[in-house]
Amino acid sequence: MSDTVPNRETIEAAHRLIAPYIHHTPVLTSSFLNELCKAEIFFKCENLQKIGAFKARGGLNAILSLSREQLKNGVTTHSSGNHAQAIAFSAAKVGAKAYIVMPDNSPLVKIKAVEDNGGEITFCKNTPEERERTVQEITKKTGATFIHPFNNYEVIAGQATAAKELMEDSRENLDLIFAPVGGGGLLSGTALAAHYFSPETKVYAGEPEGAADAVLSFRSDKIERAPYIKTIADGLLTYLGDKTFPIIKQHVTDIFTVSDEEIIQSMRFLWERMKLVVEPSGAVPLAAFIKNKDQFEGKKVGIILTGGNVDLGKLPF
Questions:
Q1: Which intervals hold domain Tryptophan synthase beta chain-like PALP (predicted)?
Q2: How deeply is 3 buried, as exposed, middle or buried, from its count of CB atoms within 10 A (0-12, 13-18, 19+)?
Q3: pLDDT exceeds 80 at position 171
């Protein structure tokens, strides 16, 4: 595993490596949302990605970067769903075993997808400590190579390719990009991609009020825990890592928090107006942009819709 922050060449190499295995997802627009926000918005539709989420990019880059020796005992990770699917999917591509630790309250749609990709699931209580402890037990027992869901430079480089494509395909000089933040893998990758490929583009993040650790970390200049965890955005519950945080601190302009009500409203806009199935976590950056739209009137804005893995039996509207 690399111990160096991805540079321009690293991200370009990651893009070449994963390109045969991913969808080059479309960039779509909405006249309704443009009018609502008085801005020109370009949506990167990673909800249409393989496994239904951008996480396929980082998972593939991490696993395709491993040697045969590192793969021989399989790979393991912990995740509430989308990274779990990404690792199971990617491991299957190279014929490796995937041992996946998932919280016992993970969405059924994500559990089923991991199983369908051949992942062997071990459930644990939904705390960061239990996830880490369970993964360590599996690593000790199996010798599997651990791939962290976000605090891993190969994962970050893979996630950076979504913003790289967005900036290339929008055919505009974007003034800013909005991404969600949980552990920071996508946000740090997005920030690096903007820094290298479009330095004038500013990067902002949206975060749920009910998992607001990144915004506290950003303000205090040290990694913080959220004061409480209660949000519909189940994919954004983790806190920043020692690899993602310095990149975010250096290259992200600001982080905005949004309520569950604002997330659900944005999710509904995407479903009803754009006919896009987007999960709550994926609607967070749009919610953050709408909440703060007066700051960005007249701007050209990229928004990454990160995933579409929704339990259709438990829709919030």
A1: 19-307
A2: exposed
A3: no
Bridge partners, 13 (sequence order): none
Which numeric CATH code is attached to 56-146? 3.40.50.1100
The pLDDT, as a whole number, for residue 81 is 82
Q: In CATH terms, are 8-53+152-314 and 56-146 the same topology?
A: yes
- Report the SS3 class of residue 145: strand
- Stretch 48-72: mean pLDDT: 97
Is the pTM value of this prediction over 0.90?
A: yes
Per-residue confidence band for 263, with pLDDT thresholds at 50, 70 and 90: very high
CA distance 106 to 314: 13
Average pLDDT across the chain, whole number = 96
φ, ψ for residue 229 (rounded to 5)?
Answer: -120, 110
Non-local (6+) Cβ contacts of 7 within 8 A are 196
How many other C-beta atoms can be found within 10 angstroms of the C-beta atom of residue 65? Answer: 21
Architecture of domain 8-53+152-314: 3-Layer(aba) Sandwich (3.40)
| Banded pLDDT at 309 (limits 50, 70, 90) | very high
Task: Quote the tokens at residue 188.
Answer: 């740090």
- State the pLDDT at residue 294: 98
- Rounded to whole angstroms, how far apart are CA atoms 12 and 39? 30
Other CB atoms within a 10 A radius of the CB of residue 229 amount to: 14
Mean pLDDT in residue range 4-15: 98
Q: Where are the domains of the chain?
A: 8-53+152-314, 56-146
| Rounded Cα–Cα distance for residues 181 and 214 (Å) | 7
* Closest CA relative to residue 132, chosen from 124, 142, 141: 124
